[in-house]
Description:
Elements: H1 5-9, H2 17-31, H3 39-84, H4 88-96, H5 103-115, H6 119-132, H7 137-152, H8 186-202
Amino acid sequence: MAKNPFVVLGVSENCTQNELYEAYKKERAKYADLRFEPGEKGAEACARLEEIEEAYAEANEKLRSNFDISYTGNDLSDADRAIKEGKLDEAQNILDNCQNRTAEWHYLQSAIFYRKNWTADALKQLEYACQMDPTNTKYSQAKQAMVNHIKANSRAQQNSFYNGDNKEERTYVNMNNSAPQRGCSACDCCSSLICADCCCECMGGDLISCC
């Protein structure tokens, strides 16, 4: 039966990563010089060092996994709730403070960008989510809905946080005209609303309740 890696290093399973590293260094120092001793003594020291290295790697991985579950799991749920309630600044603050940026993290970041009408940035985040979790249908459907939205409205392709002055009235770039234009036609509004409703439904919302 394999030894408990925390027992090998002489620390609690509830220790911090810093405490684990200090225990690892302390145990390793006991045998670092002995490995050069001749005969059985040196061989035993080498075996012990190998055991310490394996224990540290396993214990460190367990601590990281536990941290990711307890830290990002709850926070991502809070971010999802804030997005659905329209509290985008609160949701963004939660995401900014998450250290483990999973596929779900990128999906929620996409939802924030989409609601801010930064469609190009939203699509990029959905692409990251699909790359990290290619079997997730929620991500792939949301990505396809975003692609359809951008194809239906060519201006949406240029609609990004990095394009324009980021004020309430944004500048849209007409691909057939070098001069920037503001606003859109009635046809653009209609097609955009339909695509927007599809994107919202993929992300858990409902922009147009009647369809």
